[in-house]
Amino acid sequence: MKITDLLRPEGIKIGAVAKDKMDAINQLIDLQVASGNIADKAKYKAGILAREEESTTAMGEGIAIPHAKTDAVKRAGLAAMTVPGGVDYDAPDGEPSDLFFMIAAPNTKDNIHLEVLSRLATMLMDEDFAANLRKAKTPEEFLKVVDEAESAHVQAEGEKAVAAQAASDAGDYPDILAITACPTGIAHTYMAAEALEKKAAEMGLVLKAETQGSVGAKNVLTADEIAHAKGIIIAADKNISLDRFGGKQVYQCSVSKGINEPEVLINKILNNEAPILDGKAPAAGSSSEEKDSAWHVFYKNLMNGVSHMLPFVVGGGILIALSFLLDGSAAGTSSFGSSTPLAHFFNATGNAAFGFMLPILAGFIAMSIADRPGLAVGFVGGYLANVGYSWSWLGGADAISAGFLGALVAGFIGGYLTKGLEKLCDKLPHSLEGIKPVLLYPLIGIFLIGLVMFTINPVFAAINTGMTNVLNNMGTSNLVLLGAIVGGMMSIDMGGPFNKAAYVFGTAMLAAGTTAGETIMASVMVGGMVPPIAIALSTTFFKNRWTKADRDAGVVNYIMGLSFISEGAIPYAAADPVRVLPSCIVGSAVAGAISAACGCTSPAPHGGIWVIAIIGNPGMYFVALVVGSVVAALILSMLKKKLSPEESGLAK
What we know:
The protein is of the alpha/beta class. The chain is 59% helix and 10% strand. 50% of the residues are buried.
């Protein structure tokens, strides 16, 4: 497959004018739509904007490559645009961007297109290639420049591979090694590798870069190369295992530094300014120059556990909810949810998934802290928290689960116990290196986490029981306030820390198995449904506040909102956060409060309106959703300025 198989004349715009970054994005998305690459424009735009929130996709030197890998893409494709006047795209060098490629990658197992896209990203590091693209007068001329440059690039890559193999056979090893990686693994990964290799060659050095992209690891570093290298550069925006590099200089930084400051990074290794790893090292992903704040480290480790836990919560919760839906005739009895074979199947399967929830949470928190050796220790800690074993239990007392809080603490304790154990084991003879990960870490780590959890489980069991009792004994007014708070939090950042905190709190309370917990979960879910629906209502009934593109995309938000997918509102919030966010927060808080006030409950942690059959007091739940959405839509529409007929596309 070639680049020109993904880029068509109708997807190219020569000599465009863009007033700002969002305008450039919208024009590129329209080109993708015109090329027939996008199945869901709004969802694709949400993916593009979510990637921009992580970091700008402007490369500097006038180039920007916005991209998204999502199931909103029906076929892999490219859009391209030249903007002679340039546009501020938050480039790291502060210069305007005038050459754009937008990548649309489908979320499928077939990743052959990613090889092509990585080739394009690498080619754009060639200044002559970029200059020739800017000079093109027509889409056809633009495509010809791409085709000729790609042919030359493929030939050069083949020659480079042959030369590298010959050097390896002759025992000539690279001077410096590197690993490059970005969260999506489409563009930045390969551009950083190319920039580092190119700059090293200019400095008379040989640098080999391993790319950890969406197509997997390529150009993998060998043990011999690592042993002979002066040092390793890790230019990555995601976790990279450093197990291989003990005793070597390793300099960690963001992938954008690999693209924009390759000489600086290479000199860090040449001048021995990079730290030397002593045995096993923590995962990479942040700069060695700027240490993460304690809060960011805590949040990153917590989210690693939560992100792995949520599939078990969502899948298991909905299956349990379905068991109740299928077993309505047994409502109110002790066998509710399992009185028939079919209902029992759903209930048993859902509860099996729920049983993994706390061990998964603790295990992946510990793994985030101490890499793979922490996983087993965290799993065991989470399991012990879940079952509630204690020293008194050994004497015949009942085991009381330490619940979500106990598992969360088990994950952090397990991670740091393992990390400390690794440091202690570094003092052992080198001959014991092979038995550390397979014997010492798991044996001693699991033993220690057992001692800890048997000791602290009663404390967290008491806290968990106390919280449950408080919730169960709460008056209606207090639950209403709590419902408003968690509902509003769902709209603060729509998938960010506040949103996740509210959702995790709701699922934790739901796991406690109380009516109050189900009430909180209902408020959380209805709060998350409001933002997309509010956007959809405003674009439908207040057309003169929105452009035609916004209105067209707004319709999809009805479905996204009803399905409890808050992310549908992200493109609108990113474009106008001052008006969109406060409106949605107020509407979500109103919906959460009404839901709690009316005693609405949800035994399912996901599903939106599609699980309405098992929602407690479904009529008022629907009323809460409608009222909250209308309130948010009205506030938003009042805050938005009216557009001219030309701007809104409503001119007759």
